[in-house]
Amino acid sequence: MKKKRPKRGRRGNSPHTLAIDIGGTHIKASVLDRVGAEITQHVQVSTPHPAPPAEVLKLLESMIGSVPAFDRISIGFPGVVKRGRAITAPNLGTSYWRDFPLVARLEQRWQKPARMLNDAEVQGFGVIAGKGLECVLTLGTGFGSAVYRDGELMPHLELGQHPIWKSKTYDQYLGAAALKRKGRIRWNRRVKRMLVIVRTLLNFDHLYLGGGNARKIDFELPADVTIVSNEAGITGGISLWDRRFRSF
């Protein structure tokens, strides 16, 4: 593939951040101004299956031609992330992604600095209040999780791969495949059960539910549980460049 010439950063209200949200169903990208507002509507493509790194990189390469210039890159990735490398990718194919240096590859391709976190953690930065113990759970292709204390990200807890009911993990119990197989009524019962378990586990002050399937919840939620927009999976990317930011 012919190497793409890096885009120059724009003047005015910069630096601009290319925010990428890699999901099991869609890959989204937009450019944020210095305060985290989207400069333009995000672009979106369907996630291929299987989704090895070469295929995802090819899609990202095609997507940046449709967004404004940027100075740096934030990435939300659906799995465990450590020091810029993907460790697991349950809904993309862990065998393809294990120990893949995605940050380094994008920095090399686009000649811009990049940072990466788990996608639920990035979404959380877009919605949390920064007070007390806050938890973000995403109900999408799989199940994502993030925990914060007074606005500071805690070490990643991969609830999606932990058993919740008998031998089933959160991913298997509440992911998109379970919703399709069990139907909306039974799936909602599972969500209710999950909320009780997570409350007991974490004793959170507030819990935020994101992901494409959160909108299919049809029961009244407690006052300390809120459904949030998936747009935060992009806008939360600005926090990866906060001077107080810590990754693990």
Report on this structure:
This protein is α/β, with parallel strands linked by helices and 248 residues long. It folds into two domains: 17-121, ATPase, nucleotide binding domain (Nucleotidyltransferase, domain 5), CATH 3.30.420.40; 128-228, ATPase, nucleotide binding domain (Nucleotidyltransferase, domain 5), CATH 3.30.420.40. Helix content is 27%, strand content 25%. A five-stranded mixed sheet has the order 3-2-1-4-7. The chain has a five-stranded mixed sheet with strand order 10-9-8-13-14. A hairpin with a 2-residue loop joins strand 9 (143-149) and strand 10. The radius of gyration is 18 Å and the shape is globular.
Topology:
Layout (H helix, E strand, L loop, with lengths): L16 E6 L3 E7 L10 E4 L6 H11 L8 E6 L3 E2 L2 E2 L7 H4 L4 H9 L3 E5 H7 L7 E7 L3 E7 L2 E2 L9 E3 L2 E2 H5 L1 H7 L1 H19 L3 E5 L14 E3 L4 H4 L13
Parallel strand pairs: 1-4, 4-7, 8-13, 13-14
Antiparallel strand pairs: 1-2, 2-3, 5-6, 8-9, 9-10, 11-12
Helix pairs in contact: 6-7
Please report the total strand number as a whole number: 14
What is the radius of gyration?
Answer: 18 Å
Characterize the largest beta sheet: strand count, sense, and whether it forms a barrel.
Answer: 5 strands, mixed
Derived structural class:
alpha/beta
Poorly predicted tracts of residues: 1-11
What is the overall shape?
A: globular
Assembly type of the chains comes to single chain
Q: Quick check: average pLDDT?
A: 93
Counted by DSSP, the helix tally is: 8
Helix content: 25-40%
CATH class of the largest domain: Alpha Beta
The fourth-level CATH homologous superfamily of the largest domain is: ATPase, nucleotide binding domain
Strand-and-helix sequence, N→C?
EEEHEEEHHEHEEEEEHHHEEH
Spatial sequence of strands, sheet with the most strands: 3-2-1-4-7
By CATH, the architecture of the largest domain is named 2-Layer Sandwich
Number of domains: 2
Fill in the CATH topology of the largest domain: Nucleotidyltransferase, domain 5
Strand fraction equals: 15-25%
